[in-house]
Amino acid sequence: MTKCKLEYIWLDGYQPTQSMRSKTKIVEDFSGKVEDAEMWSFDGSSTEQAPGGASDCLLKPVFCVPDPDRLGTGFLVMCEVMNADGTPHRSNGRATIKDDDNDFWFGFEQEYTIFDPETKKPIGFPAEGFPAPQGPYYCSVGAGKAVGREIVEEHLELCLQAGLNVEGINAEVMMGQWEFQIFAKGAAQAGDEIWLARYLLDRTGEKYGMEINYHCKPVKGDWNGSGMHANFSNTTLRTCGSKEVYEAICQAFEPRITEHIDVYGADNDQRLTGLHETQSIDKFSYGISDRGASIRIPIATVEKGWKGWLEDRRPASNADPYMVASAIIATVKTANVPAGV
């Protein structure tokens, strides 16, 4: 009998930003299929998800991949949190997704900052003062510019070994800030993969004694914030070949600013200021190749005859990808698409 380590991972009930929790279950000869992972439970009173007098919450496995960073045979098991009666817990963002047919595809660009817990600043920042201004750090190479690469590269390899669909990495605009990109067909799958990639990143940082900071404005002042840009498409966007259709879908977002900002991450007002490649939090705009717009129409989409995708640049790095995707789907479905398309 092979002893297998199943790491059950879930989101707690802390507000305004949830944290990941996990614990290990030892089983024999696990198949690696999520349907063979049993329901489990945990103490919800310790995670802001239940009172002490009725503290049991349930863990419902929804996605499973091999765990490449553990001795022996291990698996990472992403779970939804359920109430004791089997209904979705109020903190369960995945349960808000109504995209059952996976017609919506998502590519999330997850930015983050590696923080040194001793200086309480991004890695590479001096203990006193600041490094040179932004400019040389984006997609950089070389000492003094690209800082923390050993963590980033190790994380990338772990994600690939786990079978997560990471499509790239790069150093970002601020020193110590990096990004990985994940693509998936279906909102739930995209969210599952982002959360497991975040988990592996946190655990890798733990090994190096570094904190992974997902706050959307980790350093105040003239420094870029961190986002989780949401690239999305459905069959219409991928095939319509119509500028008018694209404009109708973009326009559907304008009256729903509040619905999106409510789930696009805590403290996003500190990031969405109209500066540092953002639109103001209370305004809406869209434009071709415009990184200062709420929604960017990629030039590749235009060059392919208006067949492609859109990028919502407003989600913060600390947002829940499940809820971001759910909000985007709901809004796109309200679009007044021209007849005959």
TrEMBL record:
<dbReference type="GO" id="GO:0006542">
    <property type="term" value="P:glutamine biosynthetic process"/>
</dbReference>
<dbReference type="InterPro" id="IPR008146">
    <property type="entry name" value="Gln_synth_cat_dom"/>
</dbReference>
<comment type="function">
    <text>Catalyzes the ATP-dependent biosynthesis of glutamine from glutamate and ammonia.</text>
</comment>
<dbReference type="GO" id="GO:0005737">
    <property type="term" value="C:cytoplasm"/>
</dbReference>
<keyword id="KW-0547">Nucleotide-binding</keyword>
<dbReference type="Pfam" id="PF03951">
    <property type="entry name" value="Gln-synt_N"/>
</dbReference>
<keyword id="KW-0067">ATP-binding</keyword>
<dbReference type="Pfam" id="PF00120">
    <property type="entry name" value="Gln-synt_C"/>
</dbReference>
<keyword id="KW-0436">Ligase</keyword>
<feature type="domain" description="GS catalytic">
    <location>
        <begin position="88"/>
        <end position="341"/>
    </location>
</feature>
<dbReference type="InterPro" id="IPR027303">
    <property type="entry name" value="Gln_synth_gly_rich_site"/>
</dbReference>
<dbReference type="InterPro" id="IPR050292">
    <property type="entry name" value="Glutamine_Synthetase"/>
</dbReference>
<dbReference type="InterPro" id="IPR014746">
    <property type="entry name" value="Gln_synth/guanido_kin_cat_dom"/>
</dbReference>
<feature type="domain" description="GS beta-grasp">
    <location>
        <begin position="4"/>
        <end position="86"/>
    </location>
</feature>
<protein>
    <recommendedName>
        <fullName>Glutamine synthetase</fullName>
        <ecNumber>6.3.1.2</ecNumber>
    </recommendedName>
</protein>
<dbReference type="InterPro" id="IPR036651">
    <property type="entry name" value="Gln_synt_N_sf"/>
</dbReference>
<dbReference type="InterPro" id="IPR008147">
    <property type="entry name" value="Gln_synt_N"/>
</dbReference>
<dbReference type="InterPro" id="IPR027302">
    <property type="entry name" value="Gln_synth_N_conserv_site"/>
</dbReference>
<dbReference type="GO" id="GO:0004356">
    <property type="term" value="F:glutamine synthetase activity"/>
</dbReference>
<dbReference type="GO" id="GO:0005524">
    <property type="term" value="F:ATP binding"/>
</dbReference>
<comment type="similarity">
    <text>Belongs to the glutamine synthetase family.</text>
</comment>
<keyword id="KW-0963">Cytoplasm</keyword>
<comment type="subunit">
    <text>Homooctamer and homotetramer.</text>
</comment>
